[in-house]
Structure formats: C-alpha cells, structure tokens
Amino acid sequence: MSHVEVYGFGSFFNGNTDYGDIDLLLVHDDRSKGSCALAISCKRELQAILQNLHVTMLSKQAEQSFSFKLTAQAMPLGRIDTLFDRRDIKKIVASIRAYSPIRTGIENEQRESAKENSIEA
Amino acid sequence: MPAHNSTFPWLSYYGHYRFFEDRMSEHSKVREIKNINTGLYDVHLLDGRVLRVFICECYAFDDASYHETVGNYGPVNAVIISSNWCGYDFEMKLARMKERVGVFDIKGFMAAINRLNYWEYMTEQERDRLKRSQAS
C-alpha cells in the first residue's frame, strides 16, 4: 500500500530555539504521479495545521540518490498511510510538537480545531 | 542549508531572483525577461521563442515538486534550481527531457538557451553520469 514516511531535520529538530522554520522531509514510494500526488496532499495537510513548515518531497529512489536523510541527519517522525480522517496527520503533528510544543503553529491548529468542531456541530 | 520559504513557490532566501534576472538581461540570446508570478518568468529569446521558466530554491527538487509546480502554475518549459546548496534529481531531469522540459541550475540554463533543443542540455558531469548508467 502506498504511504509517505515523514522525517524532521534542521535547527528546529536540533533543539535550536532560534530556528527559522520547521524542515520536514516526505519520502514517498516512487516517481509515479499517484505517489507524488499523495506526497503533495500530505504536504498540504501538514501545512494547513502547522506554521512555518518547509517541506521537501522525495521519492525513495531520489532520497537515496541525494543521501538526504544521512546528510541532513533527518529524524523519523512517523508515516502516513492514509489521509482519511486525518489520524496519521495528527500523529505526525504531535510528534513534531513534542520537540517544541510552544512554538509550532498553535494558531493554525486552533483554527483547524474550530473548523472541525463547527463541522461536527 | 538556508533555502527558504515554507510554502510554494519556494521563494529565494533573499526574496527575489535578481541574480537570475541580471544574468538573463546580459545574455546575448535574450531579448527580454518578464516576471509573470513569484518565481515564474517568460524569457523572450531573440529568435522569437518564449520560454516559461520556473525558478526556485528548495533543498532537493524531484518529481513531486515538479508536479506541484505544474499544478500551481501550469506547464513550464524549464525549471531552474537557483542556489548552490540546492539540487535536482538527475533521473527527474531525464524524465522531464522526454517531455521537452529542461531542468538546470542558472549556469546550465544560460548554456542551454544557446541551442534549439534547450531541454537536452546536460553538464559534462551529467553526460558522464548518463554514459556510465547506459554502459552498466
């Protein structure tokens, strides 16, 4: 089944309080349009919740070609198997926020939460 | 790695692409360059061709980034990765070449527009890499 692996790298994940943005790497299965589309959707979902996300998307093959994870010392945050009900997205957001719960786009998250509550109501 | 801008279209760290604009203005084959949108330019060549070019700074440009670009801006003739600390995937470049879309750094693009089939331009290193992969 198609999925996206999510990694964090850069100053935010290295504990630097003076970070500019939150760098994420999304590694998806292959170069097919379907796999790329899933990565793009995951990127949009994450950016809708968290502010200052800088997202790099790479197929597994390209990631190996760049040795991106190794070079950037990327840390695994989880994987997204489905965008249905946003369960996996929420887990990734929680993983990111565990690094710095104070400064990770709380405003966006509150807006999203309010949106969901109004839909449920 | 100071590539910047959190959302599409990965605007330059400095907020502009002046270096690219200056190089284009000086190029002997370029009549004029028009900024269409953030990171999107129409490069008018002296021979009448107009190339729609997307320029960006992102750590690593791959197929998904390309599809996202086209999804946002429509078809482009070339993609330029602007800074030294960023790169593009070679296999993605080969895939785009089949679609007549060129993928370059700024220096590569400047060389590429000297030829008719600009999308086929490869650096010497890329040509060697292709030869090696074809030989194996």
Give an overview in words.
Helix content of chain A is 45%, strand content 21%. Chain A is of the alpha+beta class and 121 residues long. Chain A has a 4-stranded mixed β-sheet with strand order 3-2-1-4. The model of chain A has no long low-confidence stretch (mean pLDDT 86). By secondary structure, chain B is α/β, with parallel strands linked by helices. In chain B, 35% of the residues lie in helices and 24% in strands. Chain B has 5 helices and 7 strands. Chain B has helices spanning 18-26, 63-73, 90-98, 106-112, 124-135; strands spanning 30-37, 40-45, 50-56, 60-61, 78-81, 87-88, 102-105. In chain B, the strands form 2 sheets. A 5-stranded mixed β-sheet of chain B has the order 1-2-3-5-7, with helices on both faces. In chain B, strands 4-6 form a two-stranded parallel sheet. In chain B, strand 1 and strand 2 form a beta hairpin. Chain B is globular, with a radius of gyration of 14 Å. The N and C termini of chain B lie far apart (34 Å). Classes of the chains: A alpha+beta (121), B alpha/beta (136). Chains A and B meet through strand 2, helix 1, strand 3 and helix 2 of A and helix 2 and helix 3 of B.
